[in-house]
Specification:
By secondary structure, this protein is mostly helical. It has helices at residues 2-24, 54-58, 73-91, 95-117, 122-138, 142-167, 174-187, 189-214, 224-237. It contains 9 helices and no strands.
Length: 240
């Protein structure tokens, strides 16, 4: 029980760091300087008002100085990351506990950035690539993960080229292909194909709902990276 609570606290702290990445990376701001501050009044946030999840509740979701509302995104990311860490502790063994917690949390970070800005930051991509490579080596089944990487890259590249020849339009960004390559290294051959399939279904569903709400637009962008990352976390958990 105590160890599980420790993992939850570690997840909350890591989630707080993810909030920094989500806000600063798309704006090309250093993740170290300046100090944490209110995005509205720019006042620095003292450490005692910057406790993950707790501070949001104590301040009732408002800045102490300007009283503007704090985005619900901040406590949600912290809470979800904390739950991911606890789940990892209860579900996995040995090295997987740490790798799943960190990789899934960083993928969550990419999902939010891509959903809001339609970009997959190259720094986050290389960070996850490095971690998934170490994870593949620790798994003692490196070829399985390499096959997943090659299949994910080859399959989506084929679809990209085929779509370009048929409709003369690029269906996804280069960042999505890089992301799928990394996810293939993490998931292996079968799971990366399942991830691509279900991510595509989610994309179609999302496109349909948005089209019903805002009207048809053939040039509408879709945050495919968000669908890929969320789906990959779920698929990784499933025992196949």
């Amino acid at each position: 029980m105590f160890i599980g609570f420790f993992y939850f606290l570690a997840g909350l702290i890591f989630g707080s760091f993810l909030n920094v990445l989500v806000y600063r990376i798309p704006k090309s701001i250093s993740i170290i300087f300046p100090r944490s501050h209110c995005t509205s009044c720019k006042k620095n946030i003292p450490p005692y008002n910057n406790i993950p999840l707790v501070s949001f509740l104590m301040l009732k979701g408002k800045c102490k100085y300007c009283k503007n509302k704090i985005s619900i995104q901040y406590p949600l990311i912290e809470l979800i990351t904390g739950l991911l860490f606890v789940f990892s502790y209860n579900y996995f063994c040995f090295y997987e506990v740490y790798f799943f917690g960190i990789i899934s949390s960083l993928l969550l970070c990419i999902a939010i950035i891509d959903f809001k800005h339609y970009i997959i930051p190259i720094k986050l991509f290389f960070t996850i690539l490095f971690i998934t490579l170490i994870n593949a080596i620790f798994s003692q089944n490196l070829l399985h993960h390499v096959y997943g990487m090659l299949i994910g890259f080859s399959y989506l590249t084929f679809i990209l080229i085929l779509t370009w020849f048929i409709i003369k339009k690029q269906p996804m960004g280069f960042g999505d292909i890089l992301l799928i390559t990394t996810l293939g290294l993490w998931l292996g051959p079968l799971k990366i194909l399942l991830t691509i399939f279900f991510s595509s279904l989610l994309g179609i569903l999302y496109w349909g709902l948005i089209s019903l709400k805002d009207g048809y637009n053939k040039n509408r962008k879709l945050p495919f990276g968000s669908f890929l990352t969320i789906t990959s976390i779920i698929i990784y958990i499933i025992k196949i």
